[in-house]
Every structure is written in structure tokens, then in C-alpha cells.
TrEMBL record:
Gene Ontology terms: biological process: defense response to bacterium; pyroptotic inflammatory response
Protein name: GSDA3 protein
Organism: Cettia cetti
InterPro entries on file: Gasdermin
GO molecular function: phosphatidylinositol-4,5-bisphosphate binding; phosphatidylinositol-4-phosphate binding; phosphatidylserine binding
Length: 111
């Protein structure tokens, strides 16, 4: 999946695409989208300091779904922990923006 907007040009990695397919199968895309849209914004990436996301958005019926979500976000350059703490890596905004667009499209397509 390749995304290009006025601000962003990024490509998802093959590993991310596989995790997105698994997310779609598990029907957790909408919760992942809400996590990314609500908390992983440009404001979160100012500096390299730890920030926190709503840990309730990391609460899934099965632990595998939580781990899948954490892995998906980490592949975008943000070290996300089970407690909701997150540390941005080097220039993660573009990768997270590409993830957001992919999740948004999957959410629309899956109804």
C-alpha cells in the first residue's frame, strides 16, 4: 500500500500488510484505527519524549489482538507498551500516517 498526500509519502512494509490482513480477519481494524487516529497524532511526535495513549484502546478480548496491534504500531516507528506508554522513534510520523490511511481504507471497505 502506497500513500501520498500533501504532507506524507510513505509505504507500508510487507510485515505490516500481513498484520493488517490478520487484523481484518479478527475484526479489530476499527479499534486500531481509533487508537491511531485519537492518540498517534503529529502533536505526539514533537521530540523524542514518552507520551501516553488511552490504555483502554489497547484492551482487546484476546491478548493476541493486543500484541498484534502493538506490533503493527511498532513497525511504524513507535514503541508502544501494554500500559499505554509510547516512545516515537526517528521520524515516525510519515509511517504512522500511512498506517492510518490503510486502517481507514480497510475500515471503510469492511463496513
Amino acid at each position: 500500500v502506497w500513500v501520498q498526500t500533501q504532507f506524507v509519502s510513505a509505504e507500508l512494509m510487507e510485515d505490516q500488510l500481513l498484520l493488517l490482513l490478520e487484523s481484518l480477519d479478527r475484526k479489530i481494524v476499527s479499534q486500531q484505527l481509533k487508537l491511531v487516529r485519537t492518540h498517534l497524532t503529529l502533536a505526539s511526535f514533537q521530540g523524542e519524549e514518552t507520551f501516553f495513549v488511552d490504555a483502554r484502546l489497547l484492551s482487546f478480548p484476546h491478548e493476541e489482538e493486543q500484541m498484534l496491534t502493538i506490533a503493527l504500531v511498532q513497525l511504524s516507528g513507535v514503541q508502544l507498551q501494554e500500559d499505554g506508554s509510547a516512545v516515537p522513534g526517528d521520524q515516525p510520523f510519515e509511517a504512522v500516517a500511512a498506517l492510518f490511511v490503510a486502517l481507514y481504507a480497510l475500515s471503510l471497505l469492511s463496513g
